[in-house]
Each structure stands twice: as structure tokens, then as C-alpha cells.
Amino acid sequence: MEKTFIFCRRPIDCAEFWSAFYWFLKQDMTDPPGVSLKILELRIVDYYTGRTQESVRNTILKQFSIDHSCLRVLIATVALGLGVNCSNVSRVIHFCVPEDIETYVQQIGRAGRVGSLTQCTMLFGCGVYKKFCNQYVTIIDKSDQHKELLI
After folding, report:
1. What are the tens digits of pLDDT across the range 75-127?
2. Is the pTM of the predicted complex or chain greater than 0.85?
């Protein structure tokens, strides 16, 4: 089953996204529908930050890495660091521009590990556009290494 990462900069953004999913999905936040959200293994959407308890983080990562688990969307901060291997991720959504190009490449590299096409989307406001263009386009223009990483 295809999975999606949603990256946010702040833990509060992750919590708000999770709350939005809950508001829209209500009883369908679990599989099967209507089961208690306290049963982490049955959640369809979850979030992972540096503030998440270690035992909960371990459960979330275990569930997300299983192909046919209930967990389909994982909202995370950079706390979802290197070494996490989830081969079935087909979408990466950034709710904001990452701190730097290396972080962006590392995060989008979490998808498409089984050789399938990947969809990466970045959402940001007009005020960020100029900063984004200056930082990312300049780096891409000046560095063949980053061009290869992005292509």
C-alpha cells in the first residue's frame, strides 16, 4: 500500500495537521473504522516529532515500514532522521521550505526506493517564494552535484 510523508518544520504544525485529518476523517482515522485511537497500530494517520515518546516513535516507524499496515500518512519534523527505511513511500509533501537543500534532498529521498515514480510537493506562501528561489536556484545553478541529486 502506498504511503505518504508530510514534512513540517515545527511539532505544533504536525499536531495541527493530525488534528485536521482527525476532524475530516473522525471515525475513519482507524482501520477498521471506529476503533480507539489509543491503539497506535490501527491508526491511518500519525505524527512523529522529537517530542514523541521513544516507544511511540518505534511503534510508528515499525507500522509505517510494513507494506500492508493501516498507517498510510506520517506527518513528521526533521526528527525523522537518517537511517529510516520505508520502501513503500510514494509521496512526500513539504508544508514549508526545508532549512537547506541537503535536508530537502534527504527528505524527498525517502520516497521511490522501490524504483517506482514518486510525487514530491512543496507548499509555501508568497513571502517565502523569493527566499526559496534565491537559495535553491542559486545552489542548483552552481553545483553539478546537486543537479544530479535533483534529477
Report:
1. 999 998 766 777 788 899 999 888 887 888 888 887 877 777 888 888 877 66
2. no
For the chain, the first-to-last Cα distance in angstroms comes to: 26
Q: How far apart are CA 24 and CA 10, in angstroms?
A: 22
Instruction: Report the C-alpha gap between 112 and 89 in whole angstroms.
Output: 6
Residues 140, 146 contacting (CB under 8 angstroms): yes
Q: In this predicted model, what pLDDT tens digit does every residue of 48-70 receive, in sequence order?
A: 999 999 999 999 999 998 988 99
- Which DSSP state fits 37? T
Q: Residue 69 carries which DSSP code?
A: S
Q: Which domains does the chain have, with CATH numbers?
A: 3-125 (3.40.50.300)
SS3 20: helix
Angle at 86 between CA 46 and CA 18, to 5 degrees: 15
